[in-house]
Write a structure and sequence with these properties.
The protein is mostly beta strands. Helix content is 0%, strand content 57%. Strands 10, 11, 12, 13 and 14 form a five-stranded antiparallel sheet that branches. It has a four-stranded antiparallel sheet with strand order 1-25-24-23, with no helix packed on it. The chain has a four-stranded antiparallel sheet with strand order 2-3-4-5, with no helix packed on it.
Length: 331
């Protein structure tokens, strides 16, 4: 397991952005029209036994965060992703319906039903109603807007299928109507991931494997030829962010002695190089990452590290708080 030995990053500051005693988690960040937007899931715990709702905050100074809205599909809503375009701010989130056992626990023998929802606003105040995107059973985990439209990695399975999860590359011209482009991973090999479109039209993606692996994918400019590499780095819920010519990845890292951290990696020469661990612990990570200038990153994440000393602490249960950090590039 890789550890952080030397870093080209420096933590300038980290601040708690939201805490209300609930399990607030799985975050996303966006700059849009001169303001910073932050989205996350709020629930009683990490698992989908009790439904979560999506909360949206906005800040003008990164110090004071105001509630800009709540979103709910009526299912367990989670993992919001903000996508900023010139004319609209979009939010995509997954909703799950989970079968429970007679004891009220998650029945892991029955697959969860995933449904992706999208909503958008032209003014930051009036939002469209959440509407279903793509096909029932699939979760568009990492939607992004690139030069050729919206791209995303969708994982899941058809609603009537009992098989293991698959990962698809999907595309949309308008953010509302999505189409399958290709399968990326064989069934059961992975799930969460992120991708980005380069200026030449090629795509780069990182996907969390189901074991100890992380998969990297790169395409040619026509997106016809793909190269796949299995990495030896353990990175859950990878989030990509380019700063100039450098590419950074935020995600959950596993510590050699046990436990987890929110870690920032740099993608160098086909490898994930650990750069910086943020103050974190317990149930943590699921970052939002955006470039804050030519030499810094703005990162949102959640963590339980401030609550681990409590005698009644339970990992994955409430509370968990949402944090925002600024990280400076040193070299």
């Amino acid at each position: 397991m890789q550890s952080v030995r030397q870093s080209g990053l420096e933590l300038e500051w980290v601040k708690r952005a939201f805490h209300d005693g609930r399990h607030n988690a799985v975050t996303s960040l966006a700059h849009w029209r001169g303001r910073t937007w932050l989205a996350f899931r709020s629930a009683e715990g990490h698992d989908p036994i009790t439904p979560g709702v999506i909360r949206l905050l906005v800040s003008d100074d990164l110090e004071n965060w105001q509630l800009a809205g709540n979103m709910s599909s009526g299912m367990d809503d989670r993992d919001p992703k903000l996508v900023a375009t010139a004319d609209r701010l979009w939010i995509f989130f997954g909703a799950t319906q989970q079968s429970l056992t007679q004891d009220g626990l998650r029945d892991r023998s029955i697959p969860r039903l995933h449904v992706t929802h999208q909503a958008s606003t032209a003014d930051g105040v009036n939002w469209s109603l959440p509407a279903k995107a793509y096909t029932a059973g699939w979760w568009i985990w990492s939607p992004r807007r690139g030069p050729s439209g919206f791209w995303g990695l969708a994982y899941g399975l058809d609603a009537e299928s009992p098989g293991p999860l698959e990962v698809h590359l999907v595309h949309s011209k308008d953010g509302c109507h999505w189409q399958h482009q290709r399968d990326l991973l064989e069934p059961g090999a992975g799930n969460e991931g992120d991708l980005m479109e380069r200026p030449d039209g090629s795509l780069f993606a990182l996907i969390r494997g189901t074991g100890d692996s992380t998969y990297a994918f790169e395409s040619d400019a026509q997106r016809k030829v793909w190269r796949r590499v299995e990495l030896d780095s353990w990175c859950h819920a990878p989030a990509l962010c380019a700063v100039g010519t450098r590419l950074f990845v935020g995600g959950r890292a596993r510590l050699p002695g046990g436990g987890y951290r929110t870690r920032i990696f740099e993608w160098k020469q086909g490898q994930l190089i650990p750069q910086l661990d943020l103050p974190s612990g317990g149930d943590t990570s699921y970052c939002g990452m955006i470039s804050d200038s030519n030499d810094s990153l703005l990162i949102s994440y959640y963590s339980q590290h401030e609550f681990q000393s409590a005698p009644d602490f339970v990992m994955g249960a409430k509370p968990a708080a949402v944090y925002v950090a600024r990280v400076k590039l040193k070299n």
